[in-house]
Amino acid sequence: MRKVLLIDDDRKHSELLQAYFERFGINLVCASDAEEGFRKLNREDPDLLLLDVMLPGKDGFEICREVRKSSNLPIIMLTARGDVIDRVSGLELGADDYIGKPFEPRELVARVQALLRRSDSSSGSSGKLEFDGLSIDADSRTVHVDGELVELTSMEFELLLILARRHGKKLSRDDILSELRGIDAAILTRSVDIMISRLRSKLGDSVKPPKYIQTIWGRGYSFVGSPATDA
């Protein structure tokens, strides 16, 4: 059974979600604040973190920032409906997805299931993509730059894979969002720019001209990495 940790101070709502998730074979572990959340994060070793933004004491953004210092655990932020600032902030801190509150429990389960599939090393097409200085292994979901392992979140890895597998092709922000989530593609296209910026930073690609990801002004992005050649 997959295990998900929910940090939300609404205990009654958390208990209802706990019973609902069980119907889909997901063990939802609940915590009501940051202290309890980190304790259960270390003890339970969950497959995914559901993180409410509005929490007593340390808020969801602070928790997300702290988790990202040492873990690529998939994170879905629970934000106030229509609050774009919350969504942008969460993505900038490394969250993989977001859902507005109030939400339908079935939609939340669907988001969780989709992100778990993406983070599962056995999902997706297998194989390696090799470029000059960059290696992407779809089986182990690992990325190396100049032989050094680069830690990417599940969403960052998927973004890189989408671009690299379409080497030289121009992809709009809506195209990318549609492939990453399949929904909400038109709601927050700025989130693609945020993820691209974060990905470039981790790949050491914040240079001009870029080595891997090129911005096509007014249109989107294109992967321009040079295919590796045998010595």
General description of the model:
With 231 residues, the chain is α/β, with parallel strands linked by helices. The protein has 8 helices and 11 strands. The protein has helices at residues 11-22, 34-44, 60-68, 84-92, 105-119, 154-164, 173-181, 190-203, and strands at residues 2-7, 26-31, 48-52, 75-80, 97-101, 128-131, 134-137, 142-145, 148-150, 213-216, 220-223. Strands 2-1-3-4-5 form a 5-stranded parallel sheet, sandwiched between helices. A 4-stranded antiparallel sheet has the order 6-7-8-9, with helices on one face. α4 (84-92) packs parallel to α8 and α6 packs across α8. Residues 182-187 have low confidence and may be disordered.
What is the H/E order?
EHEHEHEHEHEEEEHHHEE
Q: Spans of 5+ residues with little confidence (pLDDT < 50)?
A: 182-187
Q: Strand order across the biggest sheet?
A: 2-1-3-4-5
Secondary structure: helix percent: 25-40%
Mean pLDDT, nearest integer? 86
Q: How large is the count of helical segments?
A: 8
Please state the overall shape, judged from the principal axes of the Cα atoms.
elongated
The description of the largest β-sheet is: 5 strands, parallel
Radius of gyration: 18 Å
Which class do the helix and strand fractions yield? Answer: alpha/beta
